[in-house]
Please model this.
Amino acid sequence: MIDPLLDLHGWLASVKDDPLAFTLGAYPWGKPGTVLENFDGPMPWSRDLMIRIRDGLLDMNTAIQEAVASGHGIAKSTTVAHIILWAFCTFPDTRGVVTANTETQLKTKTWAELGKWFNLSFFCRDYYTLTATSLFSKDPTRAQTWRIDQAPWNRSNPAAWQGLHNQGKRCLIIFDEASEIPDVIWETAGGALTDIDTQIIWLVFGNPTVNIGRFRDCFDGGRFSQIWHHQQIDSRAVPITNKAYIEREIQAYGGLDNDIVRVRFLGQFPLKGLLEFFSAFEIDEAMSRDIPYTDRSTPLALGVDVARFGRNNSVLFPRKGRDAKTIDRRVYNGISTTELTNRILDFHSTYRPDGIFIDGGGVGGGVVDQCRNRRLFVIEVQFGGKDDITGISTDTSGERYANKRAAMYGAIRSWLKGAALPNDPALKEAMLAIRYGFNSKDEIQLVSKEDILEDAPNADLDSLDALACTFGGPLALNVGAGGDYPQEDLVVTEWNPLEILAKEMESA
Model:
C-alpha cells in the first residue's frame, strides 16, 4: 500500500497502465487488523491477467479481449472488482458497463464484491460515489462522463446495449458468468470495438457450462479463439480453495471425466453439456394455473426438508396429486428438531396426510425417529440413495438417474405438465438454477446443492427439496385420503364397550 501522504494524483498517473501495480498499492495487503492481514496480493492467475492487460495497452488500436473459464472458488469476483477500480480510478472520463448472466448475480455477487474493495481502498470514497447500480465521479461536471454502470441485459431489447463508445479515452466491458449471456448481447457490445486511439478492454469470465455460444467460441476450436486470449483455471491450482473438499466432490461424482466435475472444478467445458433441468415456460404455466381437479381418493403426500439452524429453513410442503397450491407450505427457521416434530404433528392433526416423506440426511434422521415415536407413518428419504422410484407412479419410465435426488427431481419435471404450484419467484429461481449432466454410466446427475447456491445464493432450495420429497415413493389411492375436509376414522373396530355393558346388564 502506498503512503497516503504522498501525491495521490502522481501515483494514480504512474499506475494508469498497470492494473497489478494499482491493485498492490490501493489496498492494505498484509496490514495487521484488516481483512487482508493474511494476504499479500491477488491470486497468481489474476496477476498474470493484469500483466497481460498492462502489456496489451501498449497498442491503443487493438482491443484487449480476455476470456477466463474456471472452476469455483478462484476469486473471480474479486479480480473483476480490482480491474473495475483500476480502470475507473486511473483514467479520467473512463466509461464502462458490467453485466452478468442474471440481474441477481450482478447485484448480489459482482457488484457486492465491488463494494467491498471500494471500501477497502484508502482513497475511493473521497473522490468517487458507488451506488447500487453505478460508480461515478463526485465531480458534478463529470458524473455522466466518468462512470461505470451495471447493465442488465434484455434479449428482446439488445439495442439498449448500443452506444458504448469513448473515443480517445478508456472503455471497459465486463461479462460475468458469460456462458449464459446470449449471443445477441455479445454482438451488440462488440460495437464498442470500432473506436480508434482508444483503450478498449473487454473481459469475460464464467464457468464453462455449455458447449455452444459466444463464450465457448472464445476458446480452442471456437470461431473467435484467435481474437480472444483465453485461459482455463482449475480450482485445485488456486491457493485459497479447499483441496480436500474438491477431492471428495470429484470422488462423489465418479472422477475427472464427469461433466459436473469438469465445469465446477476443472474449468473445462463439458463433454455433453450442462443443461437447465426445468423449463421456464412449464414453471410459469404451473405457477399461473388454476387449481387442477384432484380426485378425493388421491393421496396427500407431505414432504419435509429439515434444517436446524443457520440460513437454511425447515419446510413442510404438501402435495395432493397435481395440486401443490391449495394447502400452503409451512416454512420455519431456527427451530429444533423437537419443535419441528411438533409442527409436523400439528399438520397431521389438521390434514391427515397419507404419507410423510422426510429428508433423513444430517439432522433429518432425528426428526424421522421422533415422528415414528409419535406413531406417525413416516418414509425416510435419502437423497444420495439408489433410485427406486423411476417409472413407479411417475411419468419417468425409461429415464436413468444417478441417485434418488435426481430421480425425485425428474418426477417433479414430468409432474409439472398440468400441475399447480404457488406463485413464488424464489421457488422459480431455485428450479431454474438446477443444472444437470451425465455420469460415466450415462445417467442423469444433478449439480450439487452447494454448487447451485454458489450461482444462485437466494434460491429457495429448501422448498424445492421438500417438494421433491413428496415423490419419495408411491402412496395408494383410498376413499379417506388426506385433505382439508372431515376425515374418516383411519382405524375401524367392531369392539364397542357400551354394547358389551348393555348385554351384561340384560343378562343380570
About this structure: The chain has 18 helices and 16 strands. The first helix runs from residue 8 to 14.
